[in-house]
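Section 4.2 – Deliverable D4.2 (structural model, holo form)

The reporting period included a commitment to supply a predicted holo structure for the target in complex with guanosine-5'-triphosphate. Inputs used:
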Amino acid sequence: MWIARAKRMLELQTIRRRCWKSPCYVFSFLSYSDNPHKKTPLQETRMRDRFNLYAKGGDGGNGSTSFRRSRHDRRGKPDGGNGGRGGDVILECSPAVWDFSGLQNHVNAGRGGHGTSKNKIGTRGEDKVVQVPIGTVIHLKEGEIPSMVEHRSSTDLDPWELPGSLTTDQSEVDLQSSLNSNMAEKVKLFHAAGQLSSCTEITTEQYSLKNEITTDQSEGMKQENVPQPETLEEIRYNVAELTEEGQRMIVAYGGEGGLGNVCYPNVLVKPKATNSEVHRDNALEDETSNNRSSLRTGLPGSEAVLVLELKSIADVGLVGMPNAGKSTLLGAMSRAKPAIGYYAFTTLRPNLGNLNFDDLSITVADIPGLIKGAHRNRGLGHAFLRHIERTKVLAYVVDLAAALDGRKGIPPWEQLKDLVLELEHHQEGLSNRPSLVVANKIDETGAEEVFQELEKRVRAVPIYPVCAVLEEGISELKAGLKMLVDGDGISDSLSLENISVD
Ligand SMILES: Nc1nc2c(ncn2[C@@H]2O[C@H](COP(=O)(O)OP(=O)(O)OP(=O)(O)O)[C@@H](O)[C@H]2O)c(=O)[nH]1
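Output (structure tokens):
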């Protein structure tokens, strides 16, 4: 038997080896880039910095209907426990996550367990924790505003262009939100009343509240079924930000559990009816059982439709063409260890580094290289330009040696012009903040003359000659950046009028 098994293994291995060498396999490998539906390796590594998330809190578990009977009490006493609360959907800020590519669009928290006999409360539904990168901004399409909002945005960000986002009628929005808050208030009151009564007796207020809630809900559903002329999509921008490691925010709440029959003994009655109870009023009985079953059912968890957006948080943004030496510069200024390569687009996602001074720490973001037409999604495209939106200061990194010795690159002043144009195309006024120019690769032969020419052609902003590989000129550059971030430096923004090109 063992020999037969060994033979079979050998056969399988031979088949696998043949498949590997087969023309089909090789062809499929070669045609990888020809297939328009397949992603190229570059596309696969692109970061996702906008993400639609549908979050649903777990439904509450149902309350139990159970009776504890004994020899002495044949009708039994109610002892059905309450249902457990549903789990919440929580966003957690984590430095281990860079973008939203690992996230799922639909996230559901766990349902609460059902109550059981002997007054046992159902288990609480499992929370669903979704890890998001530091710098995540939450825009709300539907649902409640996330709780534990400790860090609201201080920046006045423009809402990005979603159709119809700015045309919503404010009065309608106010009306809708007041209706929603009314409803939420009622649900809270209902549960508060339930908790206060601490499983003794269900109060009449609770009945009326519950009925109100169900009628409101059913009316809402009825309205939903009626075809509306045009539903306006309301997006509440920038409702919360996750900016610190470990910060948590609940975006969808679990529903409360239903009540067990131990909480409403006056409506329990029933199971084995005695003869005298047979003539009970039928209408009243129906109503009571309806109320009872609606109280038993756990409430559904809340739902939220969110748009997550990632904006790196940095004081300084390094902007430059591919291969200008931004990553090398970041490594020279800080302890960051970004990938450095002699080829363009080594940097595929923003890298952050810290410049530490005695009284201040400055965060610098190295943005992947921009090329002419980045706003039309050329190169790594405008995907990264949003990371510059939050920076206080811009450091334009230019390669002094790009056009030297017959190289195909473009002179530094043209690099600057293209960079400013790309920023402005992405968002008007994006280049309008204190800036400086880092003239890198000053060590190359002929770079000194290019630097002198650059000084003549660029006005209004300071220019720092630097050799990032040898770490020359770095301390002066760091002092210059500190001054700009502090607001002490006299620097303007770099505009097209301040750059002379041929
Ligand atoms: N001679 C010289 N070469 C440098 C200097 N700084 C960087 N380089 C080289 O320039 C090349 C590109 O450097 P990177 O730091 O990867 O450039 P980058 O701007 O981050 O490039 P992208 O990732 O494409 O955006 C590397 O081969 C570096 O060694 C410098 O001061 N002098």
